[in-house]
Amino acid sequence: MTELSEAIPVPSVPSGLMGEPSASGRFGDFGGVYVPETLIGPCQELDQAFRSAWGDPIFREELNSLLATYAGRPSPLSECLNLSKELGVRVLLKREDLNHTGSHKINNVLGQALLANRMGKTSLVAETGAGQHGVATATAAALFGMDCVVYMGSVDIARQELNVFRMRLLGAEVRSAESGSGTLKDAVNEAMRHWVSVSESSHYCLGSVMGPHPYPWMVREFQRVIGDEARHQSAELLDGGVPDVVVASVGGGSNAAGIFTGFVDTAAQLVGVEPAGGAAISRGVPGIVHGSRSYLLQDEWGQVQEAESISAGLDYPGVGPEHSHLAATGRAVYKQVTDSEVIEAFTLLARTEGIICALECAHALAWVSRARSELQGSTVLLNLSGRGDKDVAQMMGLLG
Amino acid sequence: MNIEPGRCGRLEQALRHRRDAGGKCLVPYLTGGLGDDWLQTVCAAAAAGADAIEVGVPFSDPVMDGITIQQANEKALAQGATPQRILSELRSVVTDIGVPVAVMTYANIAHHMGYERFASSLADAGVSGCILPDLPLEEVGEWAGCARSAEIETVLLASPTASEKRLQMVCERSRGFVYGVGLLGVTGVRSELSESATRTAARLKKLTDRPVLVGVGVGTPEQAAAVCEAADGAVVGSAIVARMLAGAGPEGVAELISEFRAALD
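Predict the joint structure of the above. Result:
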């Protein structure tokens, strides 16, 4: 693949975006390090450790090797002939669903676990919503021989039994976050509360491009492999060109950040798709929660509101700060789709291409399907961030 | 570092007054808007010997708080507590209770209203100080400027694991008092006082003349007395809020505060 990038020149538009955050951990007006004093030390320690590791060719080599031999990278790019014919839009899928553990989450957790190991930490703490990030973290912990504690909202535990069992099978301890709404945001609160007291021996393995600095930056860097690969793969397919549109679903925004990184300096239009019930960018206003300033769903007094989406993985009232910056600068646009459009897209992909995708990435396809008339004749690269096995039971209840 | 008592704010004056008279400061934390009688509880707490009162304005995601204060937050929010309502109710008693009030909440409550407007609404309500635990040194600047203009004292937290240099910066920039965090963890009563509580207090005392109070994990009168061997005073939250949640009422809470007062005197 390296050879390919040298062989085929790709049009490049300098954007100055998606680089390192500012010294204060910001992307424009968003980000920062809004944590209690007791977490400043751990955040600073992590920032230094990540900078040193990311600049170390040995670390990069180790991570690349893990991604190749354990996670199964590179993930392929699939051209969807049937779907393209039906929509009148040329659709390319970046197949993160084919990774080990079934989603892009593994890219980030392998990076963080390797880093935690390098920092001398002996355990991982994570939050999880639907359970995908929890499963990925438990997987990495098993691989590295580390202890693992996963916080999961009590409501999510009840509706994602299978993933809870998977995590336990992998040797992780799943702890119920009982407070608040019992969903992802409460699991983040609990994980942060726990981390304060155990940070000396534990690394907080945050699952998305959110949280205090350095997380939004670090997680994006661990996910940029998606965009880097896709850039070369699409150049090969498009005769050195880039897709007209790059689209991905956005909850916290890690899969979108990962694929956008590969195209932010091109002419490709970047589109993030949020669930209508959790559309932080489209419907929120800037706020501060979980360590950073970003768009956030909140009430008139600044109390954080609960998101509501068919996909538990996008059930988050905030969004990563870099997405807020990309939205504010206009470099990326953010659209919303409804649950019923998502179900339609989910079945459309299964029927036309034989791929049962996660409900999360069905959001991205739902937008493509809705916008098909304006996209006629163009080439769209869609990040298929995960497989749909986990959602089949839920779909059976809805469609059965 | 020598600040004339006359030039510092009301909160700091009150705490200095107690300390300089050879006493130890007691600052209880009460959740604003919790139950119909929370305001009477504030008054009763002042009468029972508090040197200042910390009033919590509930937030949906209190990441620094343990289970007791989380539950109090949730209950108060369910009962319709809003920053505006809490402040306007406080205003009705604040001049009568005779001790300064500091509001404790999270950054988003202030950010959502706008830092300037939030600071001036604290001032309008007669509040003297403010604690926003998720605004560390790196982020506190903008808020601190607005607070200063409204003559609100911004109390900063000091972590037990912070470097000497960082503690010094916290001491320099904190107003009212320096809030030493007793342990690496969230608010809540523990069976024993962490040894980091007294150690942090002693480190801070060497760096500043400003009153040094320790909170988080100070849950019994004995623990408060023990931490005050090094500190100028104690902040007591969860133990008191647990009483409020248990429905002890103003008298029940006042009784507990009297016990803390007696242990410190």
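The first strand of chain A starts at residue 26 and ends at 27.
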